[in-house]
């Protein structure tokens, strides 16, 4: 029979981890609001102001600040042409595509061609995946058709912002619940400057929320449902398919291939349910996104742009270079997965594979930082490292608009020259690679992994949590083939 003391000790072990308990930067910053929580603070969130409600209010506030930052564009810069929207760093695709992709004219995405008078970009159909196209279409249904075109575009942006705010709140909730003992990890997402600045540029936040829901379901040992959500996320943006690659590597090492098969089946089934009707009824419109992704050239934000502009080489075969580099990086991640002294956590490998795409891709739009945001928190929940990375991303956010202001401003040359922009790209890549380096260090030296310092294996790993090693290529720490948990470190802060 369990004693009262035993139950109390078990309860203490299940208390949620607060950032100020273990993170020196968070503890220092908390002095601004009275210091870390004391021993009499409410544990477990039984009062109204629990972690989740606080973070929801914080992300709503940060999202609102991001919308305020777009006010100069809302008040006219979007519609003036030229560089005002770049000078104010408030550009968004949303109001422009309301007209340019035919939503204002009630063009049905994929099924109707975009009239040539509307789109000067040469697209015949909407160049977005099907589920994102549906998101955009729903927003257009909610946009009243009265008033001038500029006014309707403003309302379209507001409607989309409201829908994306729901995605932002969902993202914080999903990440905070993925690791049961660390609900406060979602606070970094809620306070993220990159989220505030980039949330309403495009529709990426929708796919990010769906992918995060898939990871939450996986953490609850529901692989089929997790696969369904990952498949839906892939129907909204292509990058979430890489989460299946991360799951495949880890399930192979842990001997959990049945769970992986269920996830793949769920993903393929969900993707087909969304895409197959459009493929059968509007194949030309459906294929626009995939054709554009395959054939587009070197674009802003990529390492390939630096190479092209510095060398004068047009890099006409850049898609092959991108594929080769991505395959090479993923092969390295696979080797790390199978050679590591202890099976890496899902958050770590998921972050690394998506970061590999970010680093190797032929374009980096500023909203792509949202792809990495929840994965970075799951991989390395250390405020110092996350803020270093976010600082580099904010600098890049400013730099790309200043570069566009420079090239669209005619002879005025307001903004940032190519040399300065290349430096900003390099700093962005350095920020991503720095965080990758810290994650790799945690994998190779598991005793430095903050999520494993209490003896845990993979709290967000679902069926992987506590699993042994079925397939490895390196030397195992124990003869039995399973990595024993590392004991908790003594009180103190880890670098």
TrEMBL record:
Gene Ontology annotations for the cellular component aspect, listed alphabetically: plasma membrane
Record flagged with keyword Transferase: yes
Entry's transmembrane regions: 48-68, 155-175, 187-218, 224-247, 259-282, 318-339, 346-364, 387-408, 420-440
Ranges in a coiled coil: none
Gene Ontology MF, one: hexosyltransferase activity
Signal sequence extent: none
Keywords attached to this entry: Cell membrane, Membrane, Transferase, Transmembrane, Transmembrane helix
Compartments reported by the entry: Cell membrane
Membrane topology: Multi-pass membrane protein
Similarity field: Belongs to the glycosyltransferase 87 family.
UniProt protein name: Uncharacterized membrane protein
Naturally occurring in which organism (per UniProt): Actinacidiphila paucisporea
